[in-house]
Specification:
Layout: H1 6-20, H2 25-94, H3 100-108, H4 132-137, H5 141-147, H6 156-162, H7 168-172
Length: 177
């Protein structure tokens, strides 16, 4: 930028005063200030736009890296699943067991009959519940009475007449002074 000190600014001011005269100098100074401000705003807008473009390219680069990493992970998972599926298929077709110890442990476990399972005993005898949403939405009248909810709508005028205000100004009215 320009290196304008106090002495250089004073010399420019004196020369402008001599050349332009005292009548036109304030108008020219205002115009020059407005143009300078407009130029500074334009420069800051251009800087902001360049910064946004740089950030956008960086974000697009990060996005492409993220998509590539996700594709690599997806491919690795699919390869692993294919390998596991192939191993499982080979084991299924060959009748392969994991270990002989597993067969011995399975032979020693006591087997229960399916009808002896206690947690399933009440499922078949229980009747189905119908329309349970509608039954839950209805509030019983005894609860309404004990909870002291309003059961009847009342207009504002009727409520004011029924419950007069404790403030004397409110009883007299707003415009009655």
């Amino acid at each position: 930028m320009l290196d304008l000190g106090l002495t250089k600014m004073a010399v420019i001011g004196v020369v402008a005063l001599i050349v332009l005269g005292p009548e036109r100098l304030p108008r020219v100074a205002r115009t020059a200030g407005a143009l300078l401000g407009r130029a500074q705003r334009h420069i800051s807008d251009v800087k902001d736009e360049v910064t946004r473009e740089i950030e956008l390219t960086e974000l697009q680069q990060v996005k492409s890296e993220f998509v590539a990493a996700a594709a690599n992970i997806e491919n690795a998972i699919h390869e692993d699943l294919r390998g596991q599926a192939a191993d499982l298929k080979v084991a299924w077709n060959d009748g392969y067991t994991a270990s002989p110890d597993a067969e011995e442990a399975a032979a020693q476990l006591p087997l229960q009959a399916p009808d002896a399972v206690p947690w399933r005993s009440g499922i078949a005898t229980r009747p189905k519940r119908r329309n349970w949403r509608g039954q839950q939405a209805v509030t019983p009248t005894w609860y309404k009475r004990t909870a002291a909810r309003r059961r009847h709508l009342q207009s504002v005028a009727a409520r004011v007449a029924r419950h007069p205000s404790a403030y004397p100004a409110a009883r007299e009215g707003f415009f009655n002074v």
